[in-house]
Amino acid sequence: MLRGDHMKVSVKWHVAATLLGTAVVTGAIGPVGGLWGRLVGSVTHAQEAASLALDGVFTEGQAERGGALYGKQCVVCHGEKLEGGIAPGLTGDDFMKYWTTKSVGEMVEQMMMTMPADDPGKLTPAEAADLAAFILSKNKLPAGQKELATDVAALKQIRIVKSE
Questions:
Q1: What CATH number should be reported for the domain holding residue 115?
Q2: Is omega for the bond preceding 116 within 30 degrees of 0, making it cis?
């Protein structure tokens, strides 16, 4: 093989290896896996499609309705300022540590199954969504133009993240 031919082959292999490596790292070929996947974490299509509670996923009016309902059904156990009492607090670092990365749908589902403590299962999907809006607002998450849906499956696409 002549020196010029060796250079052509070497450049071709270098280009091919670079393209293949880029395709694997960016996920163009199959799911991200191996060492890179363990380092950066694999992302599912559901996670890519999920919106964040920071995106203004409830309205001020919905949060106000949730606040009125909170005053009637939740304040005795969770406290006037959502600080907790005989039940856990619904604001602050401990609350956000628990709920960060979980979904609004999981929160609504838990409320519907377990609240109020003296009559679990009493909350309607609309009431639970209103309460979730109120709780999110009290955790300094912004209101938007559209109300939270009452469909738990749709709400599971909204991730709770801490407001900075």
A1: 1.10.760.10
A2: yes
